[in-house]
Every structure is written in structure tokens, then in C-alpha cells.
Design a protein that fits this description.
Blueprint: H1 3-24, H2 33-49, H3 55-72, H4 77-106, H5 121-148, H6 153-186, H7 195-227, H8 230-237, H9 248-265, E1 269-276, H10 279-286, H11 288-305, E2 311-314, E3 319-325, H12 329-349, E4 358-364, H13 373-395
Antiparallel strand pairs: 1-3, 1-4, 2-3
Length: about 400
């Protein structure tokens, strides 16, 4: 294949992979085009110049992609590795299916490992379409998961392993099917007068298994999401209408449960008590409509910057509580730094009449010191007011 054409198809595949990642990691949507361009260039160059039929090369490229997302985009190691892994599973399944369809319908053998280098436009279009369909399917699963599940780490981990196992089974089956069809093609069996029978057998067989596994994924996730998470579902249903965050009661109930788990399983737990700065000034100067916009803007920035398993609750008109599960104080401070950077970015864009800012008090849970929910939240509240007082003094 001509090197230039391979690079063009590699760029298209790189764009598709970036699209996948941006849907798996919403934070990437807000990054600059320059960063995205560099990522696509990295992927396209690797796929163009390296031999992607060797597993060591593939692992090297994806390991580099994980590091890129971790350090270049500032995403957590867990989210970066899990997102890249799911992206790989989705693209491999799509490549397997595309190769099978190309062989069965058009009689052309295309290596699924380097499908982007096939120079076959139709095959690549099939590949891109299947990737999008699989992504939409998995987004549906994630949507259901977020709706019914909470932050039960054990259940989350079992769900993760079950999905990996089922996706891996699909990949294994697709590979065996593809290799058998290639073998039969070389031996002339698939091109014999009875080719239609073999074609129909392989096509129906692999479609049946694939669909059954996808149905099984739905059923397995439903068991974990609905049957084993009714309590968490209740908490998630109790949301603040304006911001979409948990209500005060649901948030504090969730925090009480996390304190119990953190004590029992001995993992880190940190909270951030947040108070919006100058909300009264905005209400008095521009009206309550602008005040509501301020509340919504800060809530959206906080929720979009948090990890997927962190929880934010609205405690009152201008107060929020963020619960960082399995997170120490230093890590929570790093997250808050990213949130304040987003505040500055929005302020620089001049979208609002007012400036967005908030005071925060961050406290790490100590089972010996924080013997009650009230003592834990109160300490964080005191730290927040101390910071707010300093901000007021600095303005004088």
C-alpha cells in the first residue's frame, strides 16, 4: 500500500479513536484542537510507520496512548487505562466484524489487525460504522449504570471484569471465525459451488454468537445495576432540580455510607465543602436569574471536572459538598486546582456579567477524629469559611 494512502487512512482511524476516547472521557471534549491534533498525529504516525501485526508494537502504541492521556490531558491513571482498554476492545471487535463481512460478501481477505491499511474504502466505512454503533451501545450501558448504580467499588469492579470477559469472548470467537474462513478460502472450499452454504453458516454463526453475548452483557449489567443497587438508585433519584447534583439529604446519606465503608475497608475518603463567592452581590446587582446562572455554571464545571465515581451534592442555595471516594487530601486538592482553572478559563471568555469563583474547605476523613458525620462536615465547613474570610480581607 502506498505510504501516503496508509497515512491518510491512519489519520482517519486516529480521528475515530480520538472520537471514541472523547466519548469515554468527557473531559477530553473541552481540550484544545492543538492537543487533539498532536494525539491524532501520534496515532497516525505509529500506525503508518510501525508493523501493527506484532503484539509488542500494538502494546507499545496503546501504552504510549495511556501515558499521553494521563499526562498530556491530566486524566487520572485509572480512567486513562480503562478508557483506552475499552476503546481497544471496541475497535478490535469492529475490525473483526468488518473483515468477516468483507470476506463473506466480497470474497476479499483483509487482515483485521491492520484494517486501516487495507486501502479498501468500503471496508473502512463498515469498520467506522460498526465502531459508532458499538460506542452507542456501550453508552447506553453506561447511562443505565449511572442511573441505577452508585459508588459501590466492589460491584463496580465485578461489572468491569464481567464486561471485559464478555468482550474478550467476542474477540476470541471473531478471530477463530476469521482464521477459519481465510483457511477455507485458501483451500478453495469457500469458492466452491457450495460456497453459499459455507458463507451462510459463518455469517449466521458469528452474528448469532455476537448478538447473544451483547444480550448477555445487558442481562449481567442489569443484575448488578438494578437488583443489587436499589439503595444507591434511591440516592441517585434524589437530585437537585436546578443543578442535577444530589439533594442535601441524599448527599449526606451517601457520605455517611462512605464513612462506614472507608472505616471498614481502610481506604481514603475526602470531602470538599464549597461555597459560591459573591452570590448575593450578583443577585442584588443583576437579579436572581443571573444568580441562578452563576449557581448552574459552577455546578456544571464542578461535575464535569470530577472523576466519574465522585459525588457532588447541593447542600443549600450556594453551598455544595463533593465526596471524593478512595482519594486523599492531596489528590482532592489537585482536582480542585483543575476546577479553579476552569473558573479562570470561563471568566477569561467573558460569557457572564459576573466573575465565577468559590471558596473551599478540603478535609480527609480520620475515623478516630471524625466520630460523626457532623464533625467531619463541620471541619470542612470551618476551613471553607476561613478561606472565604481571607478572600474578603484581600479585597479590602
Amino acid at each position: 500500500m502506498d505510504l501516503l494512502m496508509r497515512f491518510v487512512y491512519s489519520c482517519l482511524t486516529g480521528l475515530l479513536m480520538l472520537f471514541l476516547l472523547s466519548r469515554l472521557v468527557p473531559k477530553l471534549k473541552k481540550e484544545t484542537k492543538l492537543k487533539h491534533g498532536f494525539t491524532v498525529l501520534y496515532l497516525a504516525s505509529f500506525m503508518t510507520l510501525a508493523d501493527m501485526t506484532h503484539i509488542k508494537t500494538v502494546l507499545l502504541m496503546y501504552f504510549g496512548l495511556i501515558l499521553l492521556i494521563r499526562w498530556y490531558y491530566g486524566v487520572s491513571s485509572f480512567v486513562a487505562s480503562m478508557s483506552v482498554m475499552f476503546m481497544y476492545l471496541i475497535t478490535v471487535i469492529a475490525a473483526m466484524v468488518s473483515s468477516n463481512i468483507t470476506l463473506l460478501i466480497f470474497g476479499k481477505i483483509i487482515d483485521y489487525r491492520i484494517i486501516f491499511a487495507s486501502a479498501n474504502l468500503l471496508t473502512n466505512l463498515i469498520f467506522y460504522t460498526i465502531v459508532i454503533l458499538l460506542l452507542e451501545y456501550y453508552k447506553l450501558i453506561v447511562k443505565l449504570f449511572r442511573k441505577y448504580s452508585g459508588n459501590n467499588i466492589k460491584i463496580d469492579f465485578v461489572m468491569l471484569l464481567s464486561n471485559i470477559a464478555l468482550f474478550s469472548f467476542v474477540i476470541l470467537y471473531q478471530r477463530i471465525t476469521f482464521e477459519n474462513m481465510v483457511k477455507f478460502t485458501f483451500e478453495g472450499i469457500i469458492n466452491s459451488p457450495s460456497r453459499t452454504a459455507y458463507t451462510g453458516y459463518f455469517l449466521l454463526s458469528y452474528l448469532f454468537i455476537t448478538n447473544m453475548v451483547l444480550v448477555l452483557i445487558v442481562l449481567v449489567n442489569r443484575i448488578f445495576m438494578v437488583d443489587k443497587n436499589l439503595e444507591n438508585y434511591k440516592f441517585k433519584a434524589e437530585t437537585d432540580v436546578m443543578t442535577g447534583a444530589l439533594s442535601r439529604e441524599a448527599g449526606l446519606t451517601h457520605l455517611r455510607s462512605e464513612m462506614s465503608r472507608a472505616t471498614h475497608f481502610k481506604y481514603d475518603l475526602t470531602i470538599a465543602y464549597i461555597d459560591i463567592n459573591d452570590l448575593k452581590v450578583v443577585n442584588d446587582k443583576w437579579g436572581h436569574k443571573e444568580g441562578d446562572r452563576l449557581i448552574k455554571a459552577i455546578s456544571e464545571i464542578i461535575q464535569s471536572t470530577l472523576r466519574e465515581f465522585d459525588v457532588v451534592a447541593r447542600l443549600g442555595g450556594d453551598e455544595f459538598l463533593v465526596i471524593f471516594t478512595r482519594c486523599n487530601k492531596q489528590q482532592a486538592q489537585s482536582v480542585w486546582k483543575r476546577i479553579t482553572d476552569e473558573f479562570l478559563k470561563v471568566n477569561a471568555e467573558g460569557e457572564f456579567l459576573f466573575k465565577i469563583s468559590a471558596s473551599v474547605g478540603i478535609t480527609q476523613f480520620d475515623p478516630i477524629k471524625h466520630t460523626s458525620l457532623l464533625s467531619f462536615v463541620h471541619e470542612s465547613d470551618e476551613l471553607m469559611y476561613a478561606q472565604k474570610k481571607m478572600i474578603k480581607v484581600s479585597k479590602l
